[in-house]
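Checklist before submission:
- one chain only
- standard amino acids only
- sequence pasted in full

Submission:
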Amino acid sequence: MATISNISIDQDANFSTTVTINDSDGEVLTLTGYTAIAQLRKSHLSSSATSFTVAFDSDRTTGQLTLTLTSTQTGALSSGRYVYDIVITASGGTKTRPIEGTATVNPSVSRS
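Returned file contents:
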């Protein structure tokens, strides 16, 4: 079962958050040999998605991933509530969804 982690994203601004992936025993998961994707959608059934850039910590034994969006990506999002998740794939092909949650996109006032 995925851990719930809700996030807030400011429209028209760069976004970055770092998460730590744990195994079923609550221990930090070593991410050597894993790949990862993370997406944001208006609802679970939405056909369109915004993909986060996912970067692994240089020391994969920390279990840390950093998710980022550019200001262009956040500027293209309407303010409101979204859903997101992270899916990791082991070298053997087993997929796991360790983190999911809601993302609140906060509207921007200043524009350039």
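Reviewer check: Strands lie at 3-4, 7-10, 15-20, 35-41, 50-51, 53-56, 64-69, 80-89, 95-106.
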